[in-house]
Amino acid sequence: MTARILVSACLMGHAVRYDGASKPLIHPAIDRWRKEGRLVTICPEMSAGLPVPRPSAEIEGGRTGADVLAGRTRVLEKTGGDVTSEFRRAAENALALARETNCRFALLIDGSPSCGSRFIYDGRFSGERIAGEGVTAALLRANGIEIYSDREIETLVARVGDAGNEVGVSL
Known about the structure:
This protein is an alpha/beta fold. It contains 6 helices and 8 strands; from the N terminus they run βαβαβαβαβββαβα.
């Protein structure tokens, strides 16, 4: 079985971000993986019913996705709305899809309170970044899926090449 990759829909050019934009990742590997049928696209937030556009959201208190999953903090919109349950459901939807489609890897947009894998924002809507991961990235990683940010595409290319044709991989 060819290694499959769960990928943030915004990186595939879908206008699904909170502001109605996309952040397409242009790389020859993306085109190759698409042709090979390796890519499984999801916007976790949309899968949980959040609209586009929507208010920006951050994990409160400078905490991380793992803290949200553990019930220690919330995901709040800039307008004050609590969207914690939606972000938890989004992460669960992404994990279910990854399992159903045998994804061993995930390529996620950094900075997002869902998909951030190396950095997220500090929860004060100040524009300040902190080290940490979003809710979806945390749940995927906790379940054995290798997470790569959009800035780590070359590392993922090398890793998929190493793991690309293993048979019988299960999550």
